[in-house]
Structures are given as C-alpha cells and as structure tokens.
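Quick illustration, no need to memorize.
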Amino acid sequence: MAANTEMKNNDNCLYGGIEGGGTKFVCAVGTGLDSIHAEARFPTTTPQETMFQAVDFFKQQEDDLGKIVSIGFACFGPLDPNPASPTYGHILPTPKPHWTGANVVGMLRSAFDIPINFDTDVNGAALGEWRWGKAQGLQTFIYLTVGTGIGGGAYVEGKLLHGLIHPEMGHIAVKHDFENDPFEGVCPFHGDCFEGLASGVAIEKRWGVRGGMLSKDHIAWELEADYIAQALASYSFMLSPQRIIVGGGVGSLPYLLPKVRQRTKELINGYIQSPVILKNIESYIVSPGLGNRSGMLGAIALAEQAFQQS
C-alpha cells in the first residue's frame, strides 16, 4: 500500500489520452501540460480499426517509454459514461456509420488492465481547461465547441456534469427566424436545433462553402453570432457558469467572438446582475486557454483523475 501511495504522488506517472472525434482520433502519452512525450493522429474509420490503432499506439509507447498507469478517453457521442450502466463505455445511437453500439471501452480493457476514465469529448476538453487552461480555480463553467458539430461540457460545483446520460448542449432549441434565415437545418434528429443551424456543416450547406472561406464581413457571421448567443444566454440562465469557454473551428474565429459577446449581453438584457456580464463580458465569454489542444490534454487529465481515484 505504501508503494502505491508513493506512486500516486509521483508526477512522473505516464498517462495515456485519447481524444476521439468523429473525423479523427488523437492519442497521446505524457504526464501533463508541458510533458507530452508522444502523439499520433489517424482518421476515424470503423470502431475495430480505429480502436486497434489506438491500442497499438499505446503498446508501442509502453515499449519505448515505460508502463502507462491509466487511460483517459474523451470521445464523440452520444455515449454512456455511467460505470454502473450495462452499456457503460458504449457509443449510443449516432449518425456516424458503424459506431452505434460500439463497446469502445471494452476494446481498451481487453488490451490493458489499468484504470480507464471515459467521458464525452467536450467534458474532457472542459476538464483540460480546468486543469491547465482558462477555467483554473473555477467551480462552475461551460466549455462549448462550435465546429463540424456543436457540443458542450459542463463543470458544475467542482465536478463534470452527467445526469441521465450527459449534456447535449448542441441540440437545444433556438429561435429560428425563417424570414431572415429560410435554411431548414441539418440535424438528422431535430432539423433546426442549435447544431442544425449553427454548426460548421450547417454553414457549409447554407452558403455552399466552408465557413473559413467566407469573408469576416459576410452576413453569415451576424446570423451565426445570434444563434450562438441565444444558446449562451440560455446556458447562463440555467447553470449560472462563472465563465463560458468557446472553442472549435467556428467558435475560435477571432472576428466572431466579439459579436457573440455583444449579442449575448443584449439577450441577457441586464437580468443577471453580475459585473462580469454587465461590465466585463470579455472575461465571461472567452476562447480556450489551451487552443485546439483542450481535448487531447483533457484526455490526459481524465487519465490522471482515473489513476488518482483508483
């Protein structure tokens, strides 16, 4: 027991992290923010092929670097993060071909007898920002990613929020002004929900080109800012976060965030009487402190958490 306690206090423990996205997987081995010793990226294909590549990466790193003590897996969803559930570690019904029902944690456990911490990609990114980024020291905050899809992770009163399953912040309803935006939406489940109207896929389908190809003065960004602001105002009323971190390829555009801040403040309309929103909204709605590495580092943070709790 003494040896185990000493090991848990050792900052040199090697952690494995998986950021599992719908387009690509990122695997890493390291000890923290400034100590990522190896990293690999590969396309998300079938569950069997993709998870085999992840397992193979970790096996190779163990040969080169030493024993990995735990793995954190921050994955696209929907998924089951409840260890007490019979479908824990499975991907729930998803538009991603071949992945519905995949027991991805089971595939890892068949190869490694170590603690595994499994959560959504956005909850993982939130934990990364809490551990090393712009949420350090906060008790309640939100990490929202606006990219190909839209998802949100919530850290509430000192822990990641789950509940019945886990938050699906991209699928809330937003006001759809059909006169100004006749676009029907792209969500296969809800049509014109937040993700259906404001995701990167929605932008590309609405305007015929990817968002990055639109000029910063394009009308698309006023529309996008309004949809994002509607969602942020709703989250602010519901969870009263101390900060909202907005990432993702669309969310990180430097000319979009000022529009989102202004519109969010207008929609809240003085109802939340906090100087953070009334006078300093630039510190309330922020870009990620870890840039595009929030998810990968969040997976390492999940692994660190799993080991400390084992």
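The longest strand covers residues 24-32.
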